[in-house]
UniProtKB/TrEMBL annotation:
Any GO BP: protein localization to ciliary transition zone
Residue ranges occupied by any NPHP4 Ig-like domain in the UniProt entry: 667-815, 822-913, 925-1006, 1013-1108
Ranges of compositional bias, category Polar residues: 131-142
Pfam families: Ig_NPH4_3rd, Ig_NPHP4_1st, Ig_NPHP4_2nd, Ig_NPHP4_4th, NPHP4_C2_3rd, NPHP4_SK
UniProt xrefs under InterPro entries: Ig_NPHP4_1st, Ig_NPHP4_2nd, Ig_NPHP4_3rd, Ig_NPHP4_4th, NPHP4, NPHP4_C2-like, NPHP4_SK
Organism: Ameiurus melas
Protein name, UniProt field: Nephrocystin-4
One GO CC term, this protein: non-motile cilium
Start and end residues of each NPHP4 SK-like domain: 596-664
PANTHER family per the UniProt record, alphabetical: NEPHROCYSTIN-4 (PTHR31043:SF3)
């Protein structure tokens, strides 16, 4: 037995090469008649169009493999040959081949013999040990010992004479659909100044990244790439061979289809509205957008590029920006399985900048009386609590005021950058069923006023959702008899169009004489400690007071020389709880007695006077003795309180002095951090002593760290253009920990590189509750991110552990830009595993030779990138733990293409919807009923069931019903489909009073093709606007009178004269058919389902319609 190790490449033409990465080991018998056969197969993807007639929704594709070339090589034909480089010519055409299959051939005879060759290197090891060989390109490939050429003609004879191969199994590949990779460049962002990123003069389209691309950013005509490698069945292997085999890891691609990630510069989904709709829009009394002078805002064209000048925005005298969002209308797009009037009420969820996440109130779709077209835009109207239309103006307007009271010092340039580059993602929900209709994305760059008083723009946005479909005809039977289920095909479908108007009104900043003017922070990346010591201005030495005195708190520093004295119990709650003096107890008793009535107090006083009179009569010395004891007890208690206060003052004095001294060596620096972006700065550290010191650097937060790698330090210095000295091997890592140390000479200054980077997202979980206030017309400015501003101290300690300097970094989080949003639906309490595929980088770009790295904001989510060769797509794999239904988990994924993770090139927002799962298998054309169990909550509720496709799914009970507290309710689900395949549907149970989601199911439906009873064929003329009328007979097989129903899988092509009929037992009935006309030639197969009155399938007819 011999082991052959092959590592090489296949050349089809001088300009194209198919490279085989890795080696292939074969065990063979050393015999001259032994040969190796090579067959080159291509994968073809063909749309499933029936004679030129395309389906109405999306194009489904069939995938098959076809042989294009083949060749044969005998490794032992020359007994004395020692070959290392082999070149085998491949051939095609109508010639006998060992596989007995049809081989592709070109239209012209191939004249270049070197055009279809396979070249590889091999090593022959009779002991079974394989060697590792490195492949070379064709131009570098030179034989070291002997080069062997084989022709296909001789090889074919040898292969046929040795052993004819019958029923040879091909590669174990399960193919679904080919991916069309998008070669769009990704957006590269850098740290430092917001304007450091190069922006073109005519601002290009901002990153689409839209949530409307949703969980799978694919155009309906583009399939999902999925190539899964199945285990090769190995038959006929003896036990002896199995004992000698070594365990090797095989290349394996997970069985899930990767999600195609489009480029960030993809054309957006916004389009210009028609003139007729604009006329109808402006005549509907929508509120106008006017500036401070009551002039109508300038209307911009969304198709025109924006000439953006950041300096003009910064020099604008109107520093206040009032952003307006007006939701005007919604256009329905008819979908299969739903009514024409769906949806009837909608609401929206989104988040603008760092304002709180917004869930708008319910808006009713009001159809226009001027047009009866179903696709005409419906005006959105605010409803009252009882569901009636409100008396206010149509549409919904939200207002955001961005002024100096909202923005922090230096934040305005980041806000303008947000408007210039960001895309606002809006989720559209069905308010009745709490089902997601789809998502839309709108670019905010038109809100940049560029010195104008006010601007406005009208967008018509496509609301896009994701559908999962599977065609049963794509299932293939393997040679081993196993039936492989094809992968799910993913399509993005337009569910509607949202008409929205955006506006920005400029305003003048109102100056407040009492407010202090705050200067923006310095943009320098070198932090110099302050040389001016801060003095103590009096007052308490507590840490909070010292923090505010030195201007390091959130309040601006105000110099005050007078301090108001405060009682110690009012300052320290711990001390107040320890003080238990007699006077305090008497005061508490007096405060409690103030709530008593006059009659009760008088009765108590009389009773106490009677007791005292009795005691005075009994003995005259008792009163004096009791008074003396009370005074002694009070003095003892006061003495204990004084000692406690003295100890407290001594303890606070030490702490206050230490805090005051530490402020003298503390330097405060403010950074505006974005998720995933590294903020770099250098701190100038000085040795104040006349002796050398080894300084230890300690940080309170691991997100703020010291850059100890010289290459990383040089990278950030070049990125931020910081011209300071750089030293190699500057730091020494402490042995017992990873704390860096630096050596300082006497009176020496060194720059310590620091980096802050956080992957924690402050995004608030968006619930599916549409319950909002009726007065939600104005969004107040407030903090919304859960990641609040924080202080981080970095201590520079000398050898005696005393701090030489303290760098206090104030971190102000800023919103991150979302390039794309993904929304996935997963069964509850189960792991979610998915791959997001990035297209290969363009050759010659910096991204082409860089290695991708990913980080996730959720530490429980596992994400990593599989290394691939240059020019190949890259997959990012996710593994997300499960959660109970109906929770929604959100997290952020950042993708980097630089080695030091300076700035993310992609930022993705991921939504995970966890639902209860139900698998249903049924036959097409028949109604099958299934049972669900709904469990009650802590209180009784009035609920109603909603499905994503009401025409395919029926629910019993259909109306509103009471769900008992902690009870169980049985729900019957009826399923009827007209097309075979697999798909996903959704079922929600909603509280009708609070509009909260009570339960949610993910329905995994599989529809099987029914048994065909009879088949017909008919020819219908093309064009003319006239269809064809035909009749087919049906005989009642039962002896009694029965009723039947008729339905078809193509109601748009075939209509019945009567959809319900009644016939006697054994009688015949002529079914009247009406075929719709067609404007193009083709062939279509139509199924006719004949069901009983309970919608159970009795017979199924197939009619082949040929349009000529």
């Amino acid at each position: 037995m011999h082991v052959l190790s092959i590592h090489g490449h296949l050349s089809l033409s001088p300009s194209s090469i198919l490279m085989l990465h890795g080696n292939m080991e074969l065990r063979m018998i050393r015999h001259p008649a032994f040969s190796l056969l090579f067959q080159l197969e291509y994968v073809f993807s063909v749309p499933l169009a029936r004679d030129g007639k395309m389906p109405s929704m999306a194009v489904q594709r069939a995938v098959f493999m076809q042989s294009v070339r083949w060749g044969v090589w005998s490794p032992f034909s020359d007994p004395d040959g020692q070959y290392e480089s082999v070149c085998v010519n491949l051939q095609g055409g109508a010639l006998p081949n060992p596989y007995g299959v049809m081989v592709y051939t070109a239209h012209t005879q191939q004249t270049n013999a070197e055009g279809s060759v396979i070249k590889f290197k091999f090593t022959n090891n009779s002991k079974g040990a394989s060697s590792t060989l490195m492949s070379k390109s064709i131009s570098q490939e030179k034989p070291q010992q002997k080069k062997w050429h084989a022709t296909s003609h001789d090889g074919s004879k040898l292969g046929l004479e040795a052993s004819p191969l019958h029923n040879i199994r091909g590669p174990g590949l399960s193919l679904s659909q080919l991916a069309v990779a998008s070669h769009n460049p990704t957006l590269s962002r850098t740290t430092g100044s917001p304007w450091q990123q190069q922006l073109p003069a005519p601002l290009a389209l901002s990153p689409m990244a839209s949530a409307h691309q949703l969980s799978h950013a694919v155009h309906p005509a583009v399939g999902i790439a999925h190539l899964e490698v199945s285990a090769m069945e190995r038959e006929g292997m003896s036990d002896a061979l199995e004992e000698e085999c070594d365990l090797h890891e095989l290349t394996f691609t997970p069985v899930h289809a990767p999600v195609i990630m489009l480029g960030t510069h993809t054309t957006g989904s916004s389009r210009a509205s028609s003139r007729g709709f604009l006329a109808h829009l402006f005549s509907s009394r929508f509120p106008e957008i006017r500036d401070d002078l009551n002039q109508v805002a300038e209307l911009l064209d969304p198709e025109e590029p924006v000439n953006f000048d950041p300096h003009r925005e910064e020099a604008d005298p109107l520093q206040v920006n009032i952003l307006l969002l007006q939701f005007l209308a919604f256009t329905r797009v008819h979908q299969a399985g739903v009514d024409m009037e769906w949806p009837s009420m909608v609401h929206f969820t989104f988040q603008l900048y760092r304002f709180p996440p917004v869930t708008t109130q319910r808006l009713k779709l009001v159809a226009s009386e001027a047009s009866s077209r179903p696709d005409y835009p419906c005006i959105l109207a605010v409803t009252n609590r009882d569901g009636s239309i409100g008396s206010g103006p149509p549409g919904l307007q939200l207002q955001y005021r961005v002024d100096h009271a909202f923005l922090k010092p230096g934040e305005r340039i980041w806000f303008l950058r947000y408007l210039a580059l960001h895309t606002l993602h809006i989720d559209v929900w069905d308010s009745d069923s709490s089902l997601l209709i789809g998502s839309a994305a709108v670019q905010l760059k038109h809100l940049l006023r560029q010195g104008r008083a006010a601007v406005q723009v009208i967008h018509e946005l496509e609301v896009i959702s994701t559908e999962y479909l599977q065609d049963a005809s794509l299932a293939r039977a393997h040679a081993g008899g196993q039936r492989a289920i094809p992968a799910m095909s993913v399509y993005t479908i337009v569910k509607g169009r949202l008409h929205i108007r955006l506006g920005n009104i400029g305003g003048v900043v109102q100056k407040n004489p009492n407010s202090s003017v705050l200067l923006p922070p310095s943009r320098s990346h070198v932090i110099q400690p302050s040389q001016t010591p801060t003095g103590f201005q009096g007052g308490s030495l507590s840490s909070n007071t010292v923090l505010n005195l030195n201007g390091t708190g959130f309040l601006p520093f105000v110099s005050r020389n007078a301090r108001r004295a405060q009682r110690l119990p009012d300052i320290d709650g711990e001390l107040a709880s320890l003080l238990q003096s007699r006077m305090r107890r008497v005061d508490d008793a007096w405060l409690q007695s103030r709530g008593e009535t006059e009659e009760v107090r008088q009765r108590k006083s009389d009773r106490m006077a009677a007791v005292r009179q009795y005691e005075e009569n009994a003995t005259s010395n008792t009163h004096e003795k009791a008074s003396y004891m009370r005074r002694k007890e009070d003095r003892t208690q006061h003495f204990q309180d004084l000692r406690l206060i003295e100890a407290y003052r001594e303890r606070c004095k030490m702490e206050g002095i230490i805090n005051m001294l530490s402020q003298a060596i503390t330097t405060t620096h403010t950074i505006y951090a974005t998720l995933g972006t590294a903020e770099f700065f250098e701190f100038v550290l000085k040795n104040p002593f006349n002796i050398p010191q080894t300084v230890t650097i300690e940080s309170e937060d691991p997100e703020l760290s010291v850059i100890v790698n010289a290459e990383e330090w040089r990278y950030f210095k070049d990125l931020t253009k910081t011209c300071t000295p750089l030293e190699v091997e500057m730091f020494h890592m402490k042995e017992d920990s990873s704390t860096p140390q630096v050596y300082l000479r006497p009176r020496e200054n060194v720059n310590i590189p620091l980096k802050y980077q956080s992957f924690v997202s402050g995004h608030v979980l968006l619930c599916q509750d549409s319950k909002t206030s009726d007065s939600l017309h104005f969004a107040h400015h407030q903090q919304s991110n859960t990641v609040m501003a924080k202080f981080i101290k970095v201590f520079f300690r000398a050898e005696d552990s005393q701090p030489l300097a303290i760098c206090q970094v104030r971190v102000e989080p800023t919103p991150h830009i979302v390039d794309q949003a993904f929304r996935f639906y997963q069964p509850e309490l189960s792991f979610f595993k998915k791959a997001i595929r990035l297209p290969p980088a363009e050759p010659g770009t910096p991204d082409a030779c860089s290695r991708l790295q990913v980080r996730c904001s959720d530490p429980n989510v596992i994400c990593h990138v599989i290394a691939t060769a240059p020019g190949e797509p890259r997959d990012i794999y996710l593994k997300v733990p499960g959660a109970p239904s109906p929770q929604i988990k959100t997290f952020v994924i950042t993708v980097f293409n630089d080695p030091w993770l300076a700035s993310p090139t992609q930022t993705w927002q991921v939504y995970m919807h966890y639902l209860q799962k139900l698998d249903i298998s049924c036959v097409c054309g028949t109604l099958s009923w299934h049972s669900l169990v709904l469990r009650g909550t802590q209180s009784i509720r009035k609920v109603k069931c909603y499905t994503s496709h009401p025409l395919e799914l029926q629910v019993d009970p259909e109306e509103v019903f009471a769900l008992p507290a902690l009870g169980v309710q049985d729900i019957r689900l009826g399923v009827k489909a007209l097309h075979s395949g697999s798909c996903f549907r959704y079922l929600n149970v909603v509280d009708v009073d609070t509009r909260q989601l009570v339960a949610s199911w993910l329905l995994c439906l599989t529809y099987r093709q029914p048994v065909i009873s009879r088949a017909f064929e008919i020819q219908v003329p093309v064009g003319g606007g006239r269809g064809s009328n035909k009749k087919i007979s049906f005989t009642n097989p039962y002896p009694s009178n029965r009723g039947f129903r008729l339905c078809s899988d193509h109601p748009d092509l075939l209509q019945f004269k009567e959809e319900k009929f009644q016939i006697d037992g054994g009688a015949s009935y002529n079914i009247g058919l009406r075929f719709a006309p067609s404007q193009s030639a083709g062939t279509e197969e139509i199924l006719i389902f004949i069901n009983d009155l309970e919608d159970k399938n009795e017979e199924t007819y197939c009619i082949k319609v040929v349009y000529r």
